[in-house]
Amino acid sequence: MNNNIYIIYGKDAKSMTKDLLKYVDVNKYIPRNSKIAIKPNLVVAKPYTSGATTNPQIVEGIIEYLKENGHDNITILEGAWLGASTKRAFEVCGYSEISKKYGVKLIDTKDDQVKKVNVDGYELNVCKSVFEYDYLINVPLLKGHCQTKLTCALKNLKGLIPDSEKRRFHTLGLHKPIAYLNKAIKTHLIIVDSLMPDPDFEEGGNPVEKDFIALGFDPVLIDSFAAENLGYNPYDIEYIKLAEKLGIGKTTGYNLIEINPEKKPRLASRKSSIVGKYAKYIDERDACSVCYANLISALMRLDEEGYLRKIEKKLCIGQGFKGKGIDGIGIGSCTKNFDISISGCPPKSTEIVQFIKSKI
Questions:
Q1: Is 180 left (phi over 0), alpha (psi -120 to 50) or beta?
Q2: DSSP letters of 132-182?
Q3: Residue 170, exposed/middle/buried by CB under 10 A (0-12, 13-18, 19+)?
Q4: Which of 121, 135, 286, 353 might form a disulfide with 34, Cβ 3.0–4.6 angstroms?
Q5: By C-alpha distance, which of 122, 103, 123 is closest to 114?
């Protein structure tokens, strides 16, 4: 399996997606005449700017790339969460317009028939139409979740089970059935939306601009990368650990390939109340948004664990600190002249968490 995770930076979601797919030459992985399903995250009827749903321009980029390479049998599959209307989500999130523009089908899995699946003795009810496709493209949003801490590639497949099974998943504790669901359903390609997700809550409301899209082939590896991006160790997320034990993928060993590192965007938006809450701990000078967002995620984790109030020195971050040695805690390679600093461009959120804990 390809262990690379490819990253592209910017704000133009459609062109970024197409550039990413071309760079990786994804067409060589897709068999001719494949029936292709695209699975975004449309958990609620909220636009992507809320930080809750997959940016529709990413899906547009995927569809255009597929059609340019001779693939015309394309369907978008999704089922919103319990109590929410998928059809309304299709409309509000821009997917009804995509369907008309490109002539792709929309399937609301809430209307689907159910197929019983036995995975190593573990029984699941899965929407029948899922098994009619040859190639599944999973397009999750890298965001936080109030129960599982993280939702990305593995958990995104919950939209492919009926509402009754979603209820049952919650009675089973979510983690184990999510892991087994990913053994029942093969994901062939993952394209992760991390342009402006909510790092704290699956329903959105506090998006943070991270301005990147990631691509990979191993959903466990992708979710391990996602966990680290939000400041967690992958083994902090039980379903990642279980999925690895089931042989779905690996938690370690990915190679991060930045396609356009010179285009790492500038400072993250200050509109989010999450960013505002933690900004008082930070001295920022021309920081790139990914580095800054990783620091915000790290501070969220430190806050959860009770360490935030122990931080007495400013956390200094950004290109404005190059060549300087200010009395503070340096975050990232731009602060390498500080007496106390962590390297990395950007450093992982998990690394920042452990580093700050060791210095306070």
A1: alpha
A2: G-SEEEEE-B-EEETTTEEESHHHHGGGGS-HHHHHHHHHTTSHHHHHHHH
A3: exposed
A4: 135
A5: 123
All domains in the chain, ordered by first residue: 4-262 (3.40.50.11440), 274-359 (no CATH)
Tokens of 228: 């680290």
Written as six digits, the tokens of 285 are 């000078």
Q: C-alpha dihedral over 83, 143, 91, 22, to 10 degrees?
A: -140
**pLDDT band, very low/low/confident/very high, at 270 (cuts 50, 70, 90):** very low
Helix (H, G, I), strand (E, B) or coil at 56: helix
Model confidence, pTM: 0.82
- Token pair of 346, please? 């950007």
Q: What is the tens place of the pLDDT at every residue in 206-216?
A: 888 899 999 99
Q: Tell me phi and psi for residue 25, to 5 degrees.
A: 55, 55
Cα 223 to chain centroid, rounded: 8
Task: Name the amino acid, one letter, at 155.
Answer: K
Token pair belonging to 121: 């003795």
CA angle, 172 then 145 then 93, to 5°: 110
Cis peptide bond N-terminal to 346, omega within 30: yes
301 Cα distance to chain centroid: 17
Pairwise CA distance, residues 52 & 204, whole Å: 4
Count of beta carbons in the 10 Å neighbourhood of residue 339: 10
Tokens representing residue 61 in the block: 């980029």
